[in-house]
Design brief:
Strand order of the largest sheet: 1-2
Radius of gyration: 22 Å
Largest sheet: 2 strands, antiparallel
Number of helices: 4
Strand content: under 5%
Distance between the termini: 52 Å
Number of strands: 2
Shape: rod-shaped
């Protein structure tokens, strides 16, 4: 993935998520009201990366097709996969696909964590109510 200095996109997302999930007593109400916006941000990123994954998958299929077109002999599907996996262009695409798979998996887990943020805020508010009564 693209890197900002030595920080990967995954590391950037981890830092940003830490801030999005941080709850303190002073900003609790604000955080609770921001949950839908925060969730939208992460879901939008997930969809963006899924779109990128689709484009890369299509590019890989096209590259494999071009690879087999340049081969003078007919090969089985398994042989084509094995032979094309050594092609530098296809290797680069596969590496990007693998990275996107990890990011998408992480974003799916983030979505679940953000969904529970509403309950976490409610629990903290309820706890505050108990402490003040």
């Amino acid at each position: 993935m693209e890197q900002n200095g030595t920080e990967t996109l995954l590391q950037q997302y981890q830092k940003e998520l830490f801030e999005d999930l941080r709850i303190d007593e002073l900003t609790l109400k604000d955080k609770a009201m921001l949950v839908p916006i925060i969730k939208h941000k992460w879901v939008a990123r997930q969809m963006t990366h899924k779109s990128q994954l689709k484009k890369l998958t299509d590019a890989k299929k096209k590259a494999i097709k071009e690879f087999t077109t340049n081969t003078p002999v007919a090969l089985s599907k398994q042989a084509i996969e094995q032979a094309s996996s050594n092609d530098p262009r296809i290797e680069a695409i596969q590496e990007k696909i693998d990275e996107l798979d990890i990011i998408i998996e992480y974003l799916e887990k983030i979505e679940k964590a953000i969904s529970s943020l509403t309950f976490d805020c409610k629990n903290v508010i309820d706890l505050q109510k108990l402490e003040t009564t």
